[in-house]
Amino acid sequence: MCSLAAVFVAIAALLYSPSLSATSSPQLNYRPIIGILAQENIPGDPHAQGSSYIAASYVKYLESAGARVVPIRINRTYDEYVKLFYSINGLLLPGGDVDLQKSQYSRLSKIFYDLAIKANDASDYFPVWGTCQGFQQLTVLSSSKNLLTLTNTTAVALPLMFTQAAQNSRMFKSFPKDLLQSLSEQNITANFHSWSLSMQNYTRNVKLKRFYKVLSTNTDGKKEFISTMEAYRYPFYAVQWHPEKSPFEWIEKPGMVHTPTAVRVSFYTASFFVTETMKNQHRFSSPSEEEKALIYNYTPVFKGLNSIFMQNYYFD
């Protein structure tokens, strides 16, 4: 580990060690800042600027539940990422379409994943959320393998098939009963993915079985795949579906649902994760550093009504 990174890790160990942190219920941080990982631009994007992007719907999703957002840009140094990790209160890995083992997105995911594991092991509560591609990336990181399989789920809305573990899960236990019932009965979770983690591959992999609890599954008619999961020991959460799309994406495609119930689901998932990040006390070194890092410094680009992402933030 290089010197600057070592300094930040040492400082964090002092600030967030079990002996100095409140082990019961520490005071919540009502000003959480969540990092969203950027990824390489989609090839052929006529609106692309710079080398990477974040879909604005993920930013709005977190802001709707009371968080602020910092973009985590690609092609930065390890020291810069370590410094940023100890400045933010949680991480969201968004959907997209990049290589899960060779891209800059995957490289950054591993850096922050490893830092989050170490932090949580030191009683420094750091939540991570993965959506769609983010879900898939977490499975690769936790198993050290790509265990995904093709499914017919590129544009379809589905109900969740809850497991028994969902009832007492951290994610769903505070959801209203009527909303859980709607989730289990109505086609309101947006699926836009070609690859999935099948129950068969999950069951066969010891690392994944020990790391993640399955909260819901789905099927494309032939293969059963995992749609929602959370880690046993860590505040890591993953959904193969897209809760951010219902309120914030408007392309006319099968699978896009804008009913009041679907919008409620979006808010409750976002609120749950944002509340998790309030348990983290990381902070920027100064108000000026915080101000420079926030997403407000960037302007989203409107991509048109026929785009899968209505707006993107682009970065150099």
Briefly characterize the structure.
Helices cover 34% and strands 22% of the residues. With 316 residues, it is an alpha/beta fold.
List the helices and strands and how they pair.
Blueprint: H1 3-16, E1 33-37, E2 39-40, E3 52-55, H2 56-63, E4 68-72, H3 78-85, E5 90-93, H4 104-121, E6 128-131, H5 133-143, E7 149-158, E8 161-162, H6 177-185, E9 189-196, H7 199-204, H8 206-211, E10 212-219, E11 224-231, E12 236-239, H9 245-248, H10 260-277, H11 287-293, E13 301-302, E14 311-315
Parallel strand pairs: 1-4, 1-5, 5-6, 6-12
Antiparallel strand pairs: 2-3, 3-14, 7-9, 8-10, 10-11, 11-12, 13-14
Helix pairs in contact: 1-3, 3-4
Organism: Paramormyrops kingsleyae
Keywords: Hydrolase, Secreted, Signal
Active site: 132 (nucleophile), 242, 242 (proton donor)
Keywords:
316 residues; alpha/beta; Rossmann fold; eight-stranded mixed β-sheet; 22% strand; globular
Structure in words:
The chain is built from eleven helices and 14 strands. By secondary structure, it is α/β, with parallel strands linked by helices. The two termini are 26 Å apart. The chain has a single domain, classed as Class I glutamine amidotransferase (GATase) domain (Rossmann fold, 3-Layer(aba) Sandwich). Helix 4 links the parallel strand 5 and strand 6 (128-131).
Q: How many separate domains?
A: 1
Low-confidence parts? 7-24
Q: What is the H/E string?
A: HEEEHEHEHEHEEHEHHEEEHHHEE
- The chain-level structural class is alpha/beta
- Please state the average pLDDT score: 93
The CATH superfamily turns out to be: Class I glutamine amidotransferase (GATase) domain
Strand content: 15-25%
Strands, total number: 14
Question: What is the CA-atom radius of gyration, in angstroms?
Answer: 19 Å
**In the CATH classification, which architecture applies?**
3-Layer(aba) Sandwich
- N-to-C CA distance: 26 Å
* Strand line-up of the largest beta sheet: 4-1-5-6-12-11-10-8
CATH class: Alpha Beta
Globular, elongated, flat, extended or rod-shaped: what is the shape?
globular
Count of DSSP H/I helices = 11
Helix % is 25-40%
CATH topology: Rossmann fold
Major beta-sheet overview: 8 strands, mixed
GO molecular function: gamma-glutamyl-peptidase activity
Catalytic activity: (6S)-5,6,7,8-tetrahydrofolyl-(gamma-L-Glu)(n) + (n-1) H2O = (6S)-5,6,7,8-tetrahydrofolate + (n-1) L-glutamate
Enzyme class: hydrolase
Organism: Paramormyrops kingsleyae
